[in-house]
């Protein structure tokens, strides 16, 4: 309830934060054509994957059908140090992607950095550092050939762009209860006031960029919307408590509100739980609707979770199909070689 009250007070802040936007994504050179992109997440985890990561990037580069790449967060495992040097290392790896790279942060690289074995950092300071390293040019993606995107003022990691009559939106929605789990490594057993306010402000900004993306999709007559984030809010592998997931509720309600008013298919791409999965968690009758206490449903939303962590043996190759195809998006898991 406390988060909900703070969110209401933060709505004006979010409205101001999103306008104007940096960059432009109105041009759509791939309109009415197939468009293929790669999705990865929860990688690299540990020394072996850090060593292998440049080769995996090269494998994706060699697939000439791929036009862009999405990393849905967690550039490190949850028990390693969130150091500046590590951030710089991964940024250098990201720069070797030949195609534009859209990256949305995960909990392991900022919200969980309070952990002693992560360096006992203040997570908000680590988010500032992430922004300075990975979002140093708001309105432009990473990668060798950069794409112009619409970046949200104050939250440069939140971006909107359009390809092949599809609107894409990336939002900073991390695991660890959307960043609200207590910073125990800093001696806290409850969220601090600064933490609560930061979660409220970021969530309000996330909702604002989501609403903007859907509004643009409707105005443009786009065929679908793709939402990209790190957190798996519907992890089928365990039964969560409200303290595990409650802070996602306003975001989920906003997704339901927007998706249910959109005529085309909506896709949610995430990582976090490390095991490939596809489902419809917000369809009528889903137990997640009552778990979160949300209103309405969104049967047109399909969620896809990518493999990651020790299960990171492949990348997801996603294609936006031409009009008239059986489905707007199709995808396949491509094994890493070497």
Structural notes for this entry:
A hairpin with an 8-residue loop joins β11 and β12. The radius of gyration is 18 Å and the shape is globular. The strands form two sheets. The chain has a seven-stranded mixed sheet, covered by helices on one side. A five-stranded mixed sheet has the order 3-2-1-11-12, with no helix packed on it. Helix content is 33%, strand content 19%. The protein has nine helices and twelve strands. It starts with a helix and ends with a strand. It has 338 residues and is of the alpha/beta class. It has one domain (2-335): Metallo-dependent phosphatases (Purple Acid Phosphatase, chain A, domain 2), CATH 3.60.21.10.
Strand percentage: 15-25%
- Major sheet: 7 strands, mixed
The top level CATH class name = Alpha Beta
CATH superfamily, please? Metallo-dependent phosphatases
State the domain count: 1
Cα separation of the termini: 49 Å
Mean pLDDT metric: 92
Any low-confidence stretches, pLDDT <50, length ≥5? Answer: 1-28
Total of helices: 9
Q: Quote the CATH topology.
A: Purple Acid Phosphatase, chain A, domain 2
């Amino acid at each position: 309830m406390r988060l909900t009250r703070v969110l209401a007070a933060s709505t004006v802040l979010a409205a101001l934060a999103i306008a104007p936007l940096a960059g432009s994504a109105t041009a759509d050179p791939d309109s009415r054509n197939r468009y293929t992109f790669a999705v990865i997440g929860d990688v690299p985890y540990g020394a072996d994957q850090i060593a292998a990561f440049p080769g995996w990037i090269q494998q994706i580069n060699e697939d000439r059908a791929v036009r862009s790449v999405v990393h849905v967060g967690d550039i490190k495992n949850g028990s390693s140090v969130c150091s500046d040097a590590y951030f710089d290392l991964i940024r250098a790896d990201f720069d070797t992607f030949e195609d534009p790279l859209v990256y949305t942060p995960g909990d392991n690289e900022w919200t969980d950095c309070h952990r002693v074995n992560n360096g006992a950092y203040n997570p908000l300071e680590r988010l500032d550092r992430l922004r300075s390293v990975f979002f140093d040019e708001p309105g432009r993606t990473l990668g060798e050939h950069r794409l112009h995107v619409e970046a949200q003022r104050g939250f440069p990691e939140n971006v909107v762009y359009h390809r092949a009559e599809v609107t894409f939106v990336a939002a900073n929605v991390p695991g660890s209860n959307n960043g609200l789990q207590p910073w125990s490594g800093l001696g806290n057993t409850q969220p601090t006031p600064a933490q609560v306010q930061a979660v409220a402000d970021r969530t309000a900004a996330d909702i604002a960029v989501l609403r903007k993306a859907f509004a643009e999709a409707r105005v443009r007559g786009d065929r679908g919307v793709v939402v990209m984030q790190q957190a798996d809010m519907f992890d089928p592998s365990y039964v969560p408590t409200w303290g595990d997931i409650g802070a996602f509720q306003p975001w989920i309600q906003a997704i339901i509100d927007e998706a249910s008013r959109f005529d085309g298919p909506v896709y949610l791409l995430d990582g976090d739980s490390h095991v490939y999965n596809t489902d419809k968690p917000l369809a009528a009758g889903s137990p997640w609707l009552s778990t979160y206490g949300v209103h309405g449903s969104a049967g047109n939303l399909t969620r896809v979770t990518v493999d990651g962590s020790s299960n990171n043996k492949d990348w997801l190759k996603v294609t936006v199909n031409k009009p008239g195809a059986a489905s707007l998006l199709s995808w396949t898991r491509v094994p890493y070689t070497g």
